[in-house]
Write a sequence for this structure.
């Protein structure tokens, strides 16, 4: 799998930063995007020390025009990793509280970053890749978007996060069949809890919690095998699919006894455009 020129969103922290460090080296060009300028500069300095050439773009993935300008400036892309995302739970909606739903601003921001941010990455990247010749493996390039096991369920503690991640997964997989004919691989990464800043304030058990470096290795192996959906841990994926088959009332009876993320954690933990 060719990976001499990569573009990574959410590169200031978490999975995006881990991808940058994993792929950096002499002869590698990294195009890094994040709205967190300080974190982005830190990541860039680290990968430059490993010998990579770095282009920094301190911008928000929700800015479609700025994203297109930054991505088209790359001119050639072997691999694009759309890692930017935000999360947040209901405001004390689990366990008997006063506001059992998400505020509108949070829902809309989640859609803007987690879904539109992926599309703002995808479409300019497709235009760049379509101008590239096919490689020896028959592909012009690869694009992976980070979904989540949360996209497989309807957890009332994080409804818009579940919805946006489900949309990302379905879009990447459904569109991928057509684009594969053009020599462009679209992959959806359906992962569980990763040890990144996004979950730093969670004060409840996170089954299957995985280090970001281990997750990156699984993703890179899946991309090299041309997998269109890369899902792990498998046992949690299986359990989540089973839960989604249950009657809503039965599933909710279980979910309503589960803790959710910190209320309002979206604007506090991850500013829009930062990595998972």
């Amino acid at each position: 799998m060719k990976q001499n020129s990569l573009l990574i969103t959410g590169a200031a922290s978490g999975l995006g930063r881990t991808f940058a460090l994993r792929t950096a080296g002499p002869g590698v060009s990294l195009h890094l995007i994040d709205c967190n300028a300080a974190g982005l500069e830190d990541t860039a300095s680290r990968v430059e020390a490993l010998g990579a050439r770095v282009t920094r773009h301190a911008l928000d993935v929700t800015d479609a025009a700025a994203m297109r300008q930054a991505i088209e400036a790359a001119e050639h892309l072997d691999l694009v990793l759309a890692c930017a995302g935000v999360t947040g739970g209901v405001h004390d909606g689990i366990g008997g509280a006063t506001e059992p739903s998400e505020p509108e601003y949070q829902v809309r921001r989640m859609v803007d970053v987690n879904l539109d941010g992926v599309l703002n990455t995808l479409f300019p990247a497709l235009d760049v890749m379509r101008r590239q010749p096919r490689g020896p493996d028959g592909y012009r390039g690869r694009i992976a978007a980070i979904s989540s096991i949360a996209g497989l369920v309807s957890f009332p503690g994080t409804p818009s996060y579940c919805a946006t991640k489900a949309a990302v997964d379905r879009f990447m997989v459904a569109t991928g069949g057509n684009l594969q004919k053009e020599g462009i691989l679209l992959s959806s990464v359906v992962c569980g809890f990763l040890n990144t800043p996004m979950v730093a304030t969670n004060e409840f058990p996170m089954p299957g919690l995985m280090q970001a470096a281990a997750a990156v290795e699984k993703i890179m192996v899946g991309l090299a095998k041309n997998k269109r959906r890369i899902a792990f841990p498998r046992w949690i994926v299986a359990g989540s699919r089973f839960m989604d088959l249950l009657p809503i009332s039965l599933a909710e009876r279980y979910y309503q006894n589960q803790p959710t993320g910190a209320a309002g954690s979206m604007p506090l933990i991850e500013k829009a455009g930062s990595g998972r």
